Amino acid sequence: MTPKFDGLEFGIVAAFFVLITIIGFAAARWRRGTTLASLDEWGLGGRRFGTWVTWFLVGGDLYTAYTFVAVPALMFGVGAVGFFAVPYTIVVYPIVLFAAARLWSVAHRHGYATAADFVRGRHGSAVLGFLVALTGVVATMPYIALQLAGIKAIVESVGIGGDWPLWVAFLVLAAYTFSSGLRAPALIAFIKDALIYIVVIVAVIYIPYKLGGYDHIFHAANAALAKKKTGAITLKGFQYLGYSTLALGSALALFLYPHAVTGVLAAKSRNTVRKNMALLPAYSLMLGFLALLGYMALAAHIKPIGGTAKAPDTNTVVPWLMHTEFPRWFTGVAFAAIAIGALVPAAIMAIAAANTFTRDIYRPYIRPNASHSEEALVGKIVSVVVKLGALAIIVGLKLSFSLQFQLIGGVIIVEILPAVVLGLYTRWFHRWALVGGWLAGMGLSIYMLYVTSSTTTKHFGNASFAFSQWGFHTKVTIWTGIVGLVANLVVSALLTLVFRQLPRGSDETRAEDFTVEAPAVTMPAAP
Amino acid sequence: MSVYDPNTATTPKGGITVSLHGDASSPPVPGAPPVVREHRRRHPIAWLLLLPLLGTLIPEIYNRTSPSIGGMPFFYWYELAWIPVSVACTLAVYLATRER
Description:
The complex is a heterodimer of chains A (527) and B (100).
Chain A: H1 7-26, H2 39-44, H3 51-62, H4 65-78, H5 85-110, H6 115-123, H7 126-158, H8 164-180, H9 183-211, H10 213-228, H11 240-254, H12 258-265, H13 270-279, H14 282-291, H15 293-299, E1 306-307, E2 312-313, H16 317-325, H17 328-366, H18 372-396, H19 399-413, H20 417-425, H21 431-450, E3 464-466, E4 477-479, H22 480-498
Antiparallel strand pairs in A: 1-2, 3-4
Helix pairs in contact in A: 1-8, 1-9, 1-17, 3-9, 3-12, 3-17, 4-15, 4-17, 5-11, 5-13, 5-14, 6-7, 6-20, 7-8, 7-17, 7-18, 7-19, 8-17, 8-18, 9-10, 9-17, 10-15, 12-17, 17-18, 21-22
Chain B: H1 50-56, H2 74-97
Helix pairs in contact in B: 1-2
């Protein structure tokens, strides 16, 4: 069912869309280098972003529209389990603080633009680099599709049926990404975040005020969840392991995604990266309060407007809660915030996937002698192709497919951790052992996902694996990726012992490369 | 967890790690010469980074509703309260180990 068309809401969303389109094209001129015809300039913004720009860029990149819509939707559906997003985004920064700085330094020293670049140079293995690149691209595509799905949820809530607004969004996004590269989402991220912060602050004050306070909201949510028999506002004992492994595993996976690496490598200095790891949790606070919108929707008796009776599209509960509770003009602002919040990460993800394809598949396997301008052109074209693929997923397949792909995305991206993160610290692992570990971990994870059903599908139903599948009489679950990662690590270590006699790849990095800081920039004298 | 533990991760184990190009006398990579820092051991303050993990990844600690604050059950405000604590820990480590 599509609700009645709302002209005011639509007008405000459209106006913001025009504004960011103009900014997106103008961004090509912002802090411009001599040319955009190199992957460093187009795909990494010239590696010149300072603390503030990096904060907005990485924040805009990691806290996507999908997060804003899906996390409350999860709380709406299953209660306390959905709050895993808070421990997840708390532990990620202490975990990656040092590793991200080491990656930045070695990439700065050797001109690496992707994690796969580093893996190839460090382990001397094009095959391992290819596997890391492939994993990154495959994990990213459905993530872009979900961003478009976020836009679709907004479009439906405004009361427009059909896919044409998605095509418009796609064309505009593709055009300014093509012409401006990473500078476009970096600049638009400022507006996105300003809007999101305003909307969240208003929402967590105004909506509880209208609904009768947090006390009432939590009681009403608990009653509603008990009635649906799907969860509660606290965890059951058997959910503990699933909750903490989901939070920890998601944190381990987050900075392995190509778009997160792109955000880190675009920073101008090692200190910028480290400072940001300390400052980024400000977004987590916002996400924590946003998650509670799911309970507010329960308390306000919101019904999902999309999907089918058996499997309602709970991603519409946040837009519909806003539509129900806010004055119409502010609903327009909130919808614009979510829509722009989808465009920023979609652009960065497409650029990151394009960088990865160009550097780690096209150059090593198709055109080893590609020039800088050829690399940039290939990257630009691939960024369009990737978005077209994401659009095809949304328009051609059912939305639930993209959600399943996304679940798989986190589980498979974590399989590159041994090659990338252990590689930042040690070369003890043999390159072919890491390939073997990847195969073992990936195989086990995909098998575990395959046998997991949900209410709507028989296979690939959920990224939480029930031990009852293996004959244990328990309701305990675990995040699938953790099991795959442990298998990967064990196989990598065992095979390293076996492969001792085989030739090792050459390592083009040196110990001090991992700690270099950018040379101090001497400011030109004032004219 | 040992994968990421900053305290054990500073010095490569096994000695194979940098054997191929790790020789300090080998010529630097061509290009702009970067500022090379002295390799030093991690500051002990890095242990602070473990606190947010211990505080938030063990639900047994905080899975209850009381005491609530302003209508918000313990489970929720406890986890939210870890965000500023985590920022403080990360910031302290950053400030203590930053390169000047």
